[in-house]
């Protein structure tokens, strides 16, 4: 699905978190929202998800106005920095959770769920670890499980908010490659929030640079690096 954000504004009391932000993301694109802490990245992602409602402006998925749709009806998968897995459930149960929660007529049967979990474990390269519990995994493995869980219900849009922020540099790079490979394979429209420019430029097809609740520049990584369009972008990249 494509995503269009039109003139979205959001304030928290007197503080303007988003100031009439507009952004168009094509079907299958991988976009990074990059900017310093407090620039509005998480708020924008949450408005797109339906976890937060804007004060003004609209959100469209393809041609459908989803502005007033609740999060559970938007067909989105999420991964957050500290995506708490259920500690008392195995990896396989964690991944199956969203499918098991579907109402009767939408829920795949037990065999189909098991097959889907096996596919997802393979996809995130944890094929043999379905029987483990979260505390028996490394941080990087846990985020792979979180990613598999986010993908379980075949979302049309994948949203990630600093998902690798708590991991060390080497594991971050491995997960980056894994995520990019999964994106190549599934082609899901993806938005990835980060304050790490190396990560944004390595992963994304297009990067939106946020500053004070506005998008300063939205371009390919090479375009931004070669032709920063404002003093802020120039200084931020320096
Ligand atoms: P980022 O993810 O880029 O660090 P955020 O979108 O989280 O930025 O926040 C943007 C601004 O909005 C910040 O100044 C932050 O303090 C403020 N903000 C975000 N969420 C809330 C909230 N629930 N209540 C009050 N202020 C908030
Ligand atoms: Mg944030």
Topology record:
Elements (H helix, E strand, L loop, with lengths): L2 E10 L2 E11 L4 E5 L6 H9 L6 E6 L2 E2 L10 E5 L10 H10 L9 H14 L15 H13 L5 E5 L7 H18 L2 E6 L2 H7 L2 E6 L2 E6 L1 H6 L4 H7 L1
Parallel strand pairs: 3-8, 3-9, 6-7, 7-8
Antiparallel strand pairs: 1-2, 1-4, 4-5, 9-10
Helix pairs in contact: 2-3, 2-4, 3-4
The structure holds adenosine-5'-diphosphate (ADP) and magnesium ion.
Magnesium ion (MG) binds next to helix 1.
- Tell me the Rg in angstroms: 18 Å
Please bin the fraction of helical residues. Answer: 25-40%
Low-confidence stretches: none
How far apart, in Å, are the first and last alpha carbons? 34 Å
Shape verdict: globular
> What structural class is derived from the secondary structure elements?
alpha/beta
Largest sheet: 6 strands, mixed
Indicate the mean pLDDT: 95
- List the secondary-structure elements in sequence, H or E: EEEHEEEHHHEHEHEEHH
Describe the structure concisely for a colleague.
With 238 residues, the protein is of the alpha/beta class. It has 8 helices and 10 strands. The strands form 2 sheets. Strands 6-7-8-3-9-10 form a 6-stranded mixed beta sheet, sandwiched between helices. A 4-stranded antiparallel beta sheet has the order 2-1-4-5, with helices on one face.
